[in-house]
Specification:
A: 245 residues; mainly alpha; Serine Threonine Protein Phosphatase 5, Tetratricopeptide repeat; B: 190 residues; Arc Repressor Mutant, subunit A; elongated
């Protein structure tokens, strides 16, 4: 969330014009971005460029270009075949466009907060390896954190906290398949303070993998009243809206 | 103090309102109506000194545009959400109307001239909508290097994209530092 006036370099650094163009900013950030964009020709052009790049890179636009009509029986047959292929291409491209919208729901802007062992109240490793890994995690060094947590998990030392934050670090690195495995381990290990969040972040991983059904199932598994249930409900609504378009 | 806007600032504001309206409504004609009504109401309000904080002209204009869009949807029977929710509502692919087919073709040609690495970078950022940090992680490069590469690639694309359509260069003297929440320049002489 952005709550103050923006500068152009911040818009570029955070990819805000792209997110605005693709409908991926939260309401507060939309307001802040629009207040800046209304007076900034540079950022208006960034929005236009973001749209143009997406369309230019989109297969849907390429196959939708008008084609020259063909005449004659043989050519008509060839044209029919071409239309079939083009139709299949359009369907494929539409599938891909729809797929991209679903995958976009899995984007993770900020990592799940590490609130410390006392707050989480979980049985967890107290050795320095976990502390060192979480220092990396808290500092945004996700690759290093993932490596250190992976060693803990491999030794069976970490329990739910190590698996959960290993998955979270991998999600930040956009390694959704591996992240999903970690959250699955957390859920399979039974009740822990990480259970609801593991469902939530496994849903994000599933979205990144284009598996909207699995994502929806995870979001629905989060009990009402859990601190993350409201976010889960909003994400579920967004998913339903994108799937129905 | 009542802020006065230069001709160029008014043009920029009108372009911005068009983007905002297109995003909400997904209709080029409706967006054009919203721009005209918003600019008329804005100039009227500024003339009456209704903007108390000159540094908040962007928020002020956005608020007017929002009301105009709500009015438009009420008038056309298309107000199906609460006005507050409408502020963040984006019509599907609505902003596609911002660019013309020939501009997309020119962009595709410009993209084809980029290196495969730069093109992959832009694909991750603009099509897969990955955050800059996630793009850097995917490309296994330091974030700062990826940022510079993206900036250079965008600059090349910008030359091609804007160069042939007669746009005024966006970083002209008056817009080098956009006047966001700062005192606005006096109006140009008629």
């Amino acid at each position: 969330m952005i709550e103050r006036a923006l500068r152009c370099d911040e818009v570029e650094a955070h990819g805000l014009a792209t997110k605005y163009a693709s409908g991926q900013l939260d309401a507060s950030s939309v307001a802040t971005f629009e207040e800046h964009m209304l007076l900034c020709a540079n950022c208006q052009e960034l929005v236009r460029m973001a749209v143009a790049i997406r369309l230019a890179e989109s297969d849907a636009h390429a196959v939708a270009l008008p084609r020259r009509p063909r005449v004659g029986m043989r050519r008509a047959l060839l044209a029919s075949a071409a239309m079939f292929v083009a139709g299949a291409g359009i369907l494929f491209a539409l599938d891909r466009a729809h797929d991209a919208k679903i995958r976009g729901l899995g984007l993770l802007e900020s990592a799940p907060a590490y609130q410390g062992l006392a707050v989480r109240a979980a049985t967890s490793p107290s050795d320095s390896a976990f502390v060192g890994a979480m220092n990396d995690y808290a500092a945004g060094r996700y690759e290093s954190a993932a490596g250190r947590l992976a060693r803990l998990v491999a030794r069976g030392d970490g329990g739910a906290p190590a698996s959960f934050f290993h998955g979270a670090a991998l999600l930040m690195l956009d390694q959704a398949p591996e992240a999903r495995d970690d959250f699955t381990h957390v859920i399979a290990d039974g009740p822990s303070p990480y259970m609801a969040e593991a469902h939530y972040y496994r849903a994000l991983a599933a979205f990144r993998l284009g598996d909207a059904d699995a994502a929806a199932a995870d979001l629905r598994a989060i009990p009402d009243g859990d601190p993350i249930s409201e976010r889960a409900r909003r994400l579920l609504d967004q998913a339903e809206a994108r799937r129905s378009r | 103090m009542t802020p006065q806007l230069t001709t160029q600032q008014l043009e920029t504001l009108a372009n911005g309102v068009r983007i905002l309206a297109l995003r909400r409504l997904g209709d080029a004609d409706a967006a054009r109506d919203v721009v005209q009504e918003t600019m008329a109401r804005l100039l009227d309000a500024l003339g009456k000194g209704q903007l108390r904080d000159p540094e908040r002209v962007g928020a002020f204009a956005r608020g007017i545009a929002h009301h105009v869009i709500v009015d438009y949807r009420r008038a056309t029977g298309r107000l199906t959400t609460l006005p507050d929710e409408l502020a963040n509502e984006a019509a599907p692919s609505a902003l596609d109307l911002l660019v013309r087919d020939e501009e997309v073709e020119r962009m595709r040609a410009a993209l084809a001239r980029l290196s495969s690495g730069d093109r992959e970078l832009l694909h991750l950022a603009f099509v897969e909508n990955l955050s800059p940090r996630a793009v850097a992680a995917r490309m296994r490069e330091p974030a700062e290097r990826v940022r510079k590469r993206k900036s250079r690639a965008l600059a090349r694309l910008r030359e091609v994209f804007l160069g042939a359509v007669g746009h005024v260069p966006v970083r002209s003297a008056t817009m080098e530092h956009p006047p966001v929440r700062t005192k606005l320049a006096p109006a140009e002489a008629e």
